Amino acid sequence: MPIYEYECKACGHRLEKLQKISAAPLTDCPACTEPTLSRLVSAAGFRLAGGGWYETDFKSGSKKNLAGDSASMPASSESGSAKPAGESKASA
């Protein structure tokens, strides 16, 4: 269930409410009891970080461990044959 953010147009009171997507929006302000609440558009409150399905799935061969590549990069770049991270074949 998403968390919706509301603001009262009469008194400026802001609140968050955990509601079903199918639930009707709130209208009455709990602070001033006026029917002037409006739903705000806000950013999601989570961040996808670290290794996980979104980073490692659908990758093949040496591209599977993107997070671990930075640790092994300095050793392989000493030989001069490896390209730096972020460089594409088209820019060469």
Automatic annotation (TrEMBL):
Sequence segments annotated as region (Disordered): 65-92
Skewed-composition ranges (Low complexity): 70-82
One of the Pfam families matching this protein, by short name: Zn_ribbon_8
Domain Putative regulatory protein FmdB zinc ribbon span(s) in chain numbering: 1-42
Source superkingdom: Bacteria
PANTHER family, per the entry: CONSERVED SERINE RICH PROTEIN, REGULATORY PROTEIN, FMDB FAMILY
NCBIfam families, sorted: CxxC_CxxC_SSSS
The protein, known as: Zinc ribbon domain-containing protein
Species this chain originates from: Salinicola endophyticus
